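Below is a filled-in request sheet from our internal design queue. Each sheet records the structural input a requester submitted and the sequence that came back. We keep these sheets so that new team members can see what a complete request looks like end to end.

REQUESTER: design group, bay 2
PRIORITY: normal
MODE: inverse folding
CHAIN LENGTH: 174
BACKBONE (tokenized):
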């Protein structure tokens, strides 16, 4: 809702040792999930697949190796700009940055997103007191925390999908 996009989760497709397609993703922990399972976890089982134009096999391996180097890290429910914990599109952004030296997906701020929906407001109200930038009395309420966070950088699944260097090769979205 905050991005106006149907994309709510993103990962990187790779293959496990047996050749089975997996998605490298940041969820409860950063890990590889079988592609079929990853798709069924999505709303409506819809999926879109994008590929970086002219991506070589060596570049693809460098990106997936960079993503795998973060395996075991916890999920970042705050979309905070650290790499101690990660959210989904942050993992993709970091993997391409570290693997190929490119910034995939436009970096935005929370102020760029639509935070006026009831769902977004409820999430902010639920999480603000434990947010690293607002805890320890740095904000007295959810609105004060949001004022602090508006300039926080983040990369959304939509921002990754809209990167002009990517080509959509498949979608099941209507």
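RETURNED SEQUENCE:
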């Amino acid at each position: 809702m905050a991005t106006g996009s149907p994309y709510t989760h993103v990962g990187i497709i790779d293959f496990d040792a047996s050749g089975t397609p997996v998605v490298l993703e940041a969820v409860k922990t950063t890990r590889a999930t079988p592609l079929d399972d990853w798709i069924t976890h999505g709303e409506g089982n819809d999926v879109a697949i994008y590929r970086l134009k002219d991506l070589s096999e060596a570049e693809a391996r460098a990106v997936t190796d960079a993503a795998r180097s973060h395996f075991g890290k916890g999920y970042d429910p705050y979309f905070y700009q650290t790499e101690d914990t990660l959210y989904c599109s942050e993992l993709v952004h970091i993997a391409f940055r570290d693997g190929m030296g490119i910034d995939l997906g436009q970096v935005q701020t929370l102020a760029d997103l639509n935070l006026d929906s009831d769902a977004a407001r409820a999430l902010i109200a639920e999480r603000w007191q434990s947010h690293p930038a607002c805890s320890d009395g740095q904000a007295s309420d959810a609105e004060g925390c949001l004022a602090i966070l508006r300039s926080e950088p983040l990369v959304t699944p939509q921002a990754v999908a809209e990167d002009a260097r990517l080509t959509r090769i498949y979608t099941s979205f209507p």
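SHEET NOTES:
- The helical segments are 35-41, 57-68, 88-100, 118-127, 142-149, 157-161.
- The chain has a mean pLDDT of 93.
FILED BY: M.R.
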